[in-house]
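Hello again, I could really use a second opinion on something today. I've been staring at a protein lately and its backbone has me curious. Please have a think about how the structure follows from the sequence. I owe you a coffee for this, so here goes:
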Amino acid sequence: MNGLRAAFHADGDRFWIGLPSISCAACRVPHWINEFFPVPPWRAAEAGDDEGYLVLEWPEGFDLHTLPIPTYALGRRTKRALIVTCRDTRSASADVQLRYFAPQHGVPEDTATGSAMRVLATYWLNRDLSDQLLAQQCSSYGGELRSRVSGELTWVGGKVLSGTTRDAHDS
């Protein structure tokens, strides 16, 4: 983690990592985004430096599963990883949905992304959601991630599973 110091704690079967909060600044939706997504997002924000994150927000209830995984050509447009998100109105169990793409860094789509949740905690707090979130990662594997903003730290948590099969995830 590039020398970043983190705090850890366990709460039953959920493990938490506390990382310094990262701010998000609203920006225009990049003009090139339609090269990668047939339906454009309606909001955007940047977090971190030029190799940080670009948050793209779709309207409430949008099905993020329908978005294609961006190609490696994304690297010609940005060095930022893409975090796509929307408020979740389809289920009572999650506040937001997300997916994480960084093909230019060798990660076409990450299946469960705590670093993205760290960014979304601040992003959605700025958009008037709670300082505690439950997110559904809409990757093929899926997962639930939680966040809690507390002072200078953003806590990201979830159940940590050993094994690599879907059966291990379901147990």
